[in-house]
Amino acid sequence: MKEKKWYKKWWAILLFIIVGITIISSLGGDNTKVKELEEENAKIKLELNTLKEKISKYSDIIALEDAKSEEQKLLAEQQRKEELEEIEVETKQLQEQKKIEDERNKWEEVFTFSGSTSKKSSIFNVIKGEAKVVWKHLGSGHFSINLIPKGSEYGELLVNHIGATSDESFFYQAGDYFLDINGDTPWEVTVFQNKNE
């Protein structure tokens, strides 16, 4: 009997078929692995996109917080500036009030004279070196005040005005004086001297 060539033997054919099937199935297995890798890659991409979205969201939140923080700083600075301005205004008002109070306390009343016609006052004495005459004239006519030392015919003209007026004038000589007032509408005159002189 003649021996068959090796590729004609049944076991060779079977072996060839098994090897072919194995190769084909292994190629199919690689295809499954490729699909698995693609799916894994898609999952990674999805996770990356999710992370990017979260980072973007957190970046927006941080930017918003920074903006709020900056706005709060500006508001706090503005509020502090306003408070300092209020303190400065209050301090100036207190200084002005103290100045007015000191000025008021500096003077003591010596003599008051009032009327609504022209007349001369009685004699009053100023014992300090600094004194002032304060007047108020309410009418629309002529008004004048002369400060005259006792025993003299002439004095110092403190005011010569037509119409309503309210003011003061200073003099710096102690002594006895009287006032010569010219006016035909209500007026009031007060003499003060400096207590500290």
Distance between the termini: 162 Å
Classify the beta-strand content into a percent band.
Answer: 25-35%
SSE string, helices as H and strands as E: HEEEEEEEEE
Low-confidence stretches: none
Please tell me what the overall shape is.
rod-shaped
| CATH architecture field of the domain at 108-194 | Sandwich
Structure notes:
- This protein has a domain at 108-194: Jelly Rolls (Sandwich).
- 11% of the residues are buried.
- Strands 2, 3, 5, 6 and 8 form a 5-stranded antiparallel sheet that branches. Strands 1-9-4-7 form a 4-stranded antiparallel sheet.
- It has one helix at residues 10-106; strands at 107-115, 119-120, 124-126, 131-137, 142-149, 156-162, 165-171, 175-183, 187-194.
- It starts with 9 loop residues before the first helix and ends with a strand.
- 49% of the residues lie in helices and 30% in strands.
What would the keywords be for this entry?
197 residues; alpha+beta; Jelly Rolls; 5-stranded antiparallel beta sheet; 1 helix; 49% helix
Give the gist of this structure.
By secondary structure, this protein is an alpha+beta fold. The protein has one helix spanning 10-106; strands at 107-115, 119-120, 124-126, 131-137, 142-149, 156-162, 165-171, 175-183, 187-194.
